[in-house]
Predict the 3D structure of the following.
Amino acid sequence: QLVQSGGGLVHVGGSLRLSCAASGFAFEDYAIGWFRQAPGKEREGISCIYSEDGSTLYAGSVKGRFTISSDNARNTVYLQMNSLKPEDTAVYYCKYSNYWGQGTQVTVSS
């Protein structure tokens, strides 16, 4: 399973870091993604990291503000979120292969 941590309530312009740790298995040859789902909206992919070359992708809405990274020794992937906006409010999920994290609420207050 994937175990998420981090998230919470932050003011506009603040920062948060989300973690996604593999429990019971190791990330191998992976593409790990972060998704989010705001109330009344569909789940959207916002970032992805590839183990093959460490390359990363970002949705336009978060590019330049969010950073995805991985710690292979800890089997953990992170999402550093800076300059948060109210529209970033959502439940955030990580995904690896067929596994989804449990979801973490991020709320940005104005």
